[in-house]
Amino acid sequence: MSQRELVILGTASQVPTKQRNHNGYLLRWDGEGLLFDPGEGTQRQMIYAGVSATDLTRIGITHFHGDHSLGLAGVVQRISLDKVPHPVDVYYPASGEQYFQRLCSSTSYHQTGDLRPHPISEAGELPGPAAPFALHTAPLSHPVEAFGYRLTEPDGRRIVPERLREFGLSGPVVGKLQRDGEVEFDGRTVRLDEVSELRRGQSFAFVMDTRLCAGVHELAAGVDMLVIEATFVDADTHLATEFGHLTAGQAGAVAARAKVRTLVLTHFSQRYRTLDVHLAEARAQFDGEIVVAEDLMRIPLPPRR
Length: 305
Fold this sequence. Notes:
Elements: E1 4-10, E2 24-29, E3 32-36, H1 42-49, E4 58-60, H2 66-69, H3 72-81, E5 88-93, H4 97-104, E6 115-120, E7 124-125, E8 134-139, E9 147-152, E10 156-159, H5 161-167, H6 172-180, E11 182-185, E12 188-191, E13 196-199, E14 203-207, H7 214-220, E15 225-229, H8 237-243, H9 248-258, E16 262-266, H10 276-285, E17 289-292, E18 298-300
Helix pairs in contact: 3-4, 9-10
């Protein structure tokens, strides 16, 4: 069976705490492993979570603040140490090229990993290996240049066995029908849409350090799972605005407007002892599924619609 889940490696903003590591999020999507914002300590958290360097196929950095990127140095070196046999595509803001180069060459090591850098300078679809999904980016609003990410799987068709039986179809002719869209059988043309139903593609969005902006709404629109920062509670909206962040209530409102299915709140300030208020404020805006992220939590993508 295919596996699609989010593995939480860290949930702290700015500094780690006794309970929360710096940021780190691994999206398992069938045979791909997309690592987002590896903060300090990510390599060790991967061990705790049962994630190996060979699981990684892509790395996405939203911006070059330490809590979102300091772990890249260790991860890159681990890719070489473990002799990961496939290329790893790395996405990051082009304005942070010097930081990317420094992190990848921070110490001496035997470099064998095949990293394929993709600096981002504008919104749009990102390059990468052939995959049954598209990876897009959009700019966010933070004191340094930042980009969010969205993964979108195209809609497909699901074969309905009962309809196959109605047409008497079985065996290799079914495969030909799926490949070609139609087949000649028993004196008539059978089209794929006659024996199948729409299978909606799944989607995922990753939105970190940002104020409310057009990019936030663009990335979140209609996704099955939205991972979004909720650094502050609403009483501290002035701090969120000043430092380029969201409150839990704002994150909930984004999810409601976007008609998200599962909302994952993360990136919490160390100033809060508990996250009960975060959950309550998000819940006041959004009545769908809400997960308050904890380190090492595994969150499956919602079932297909």
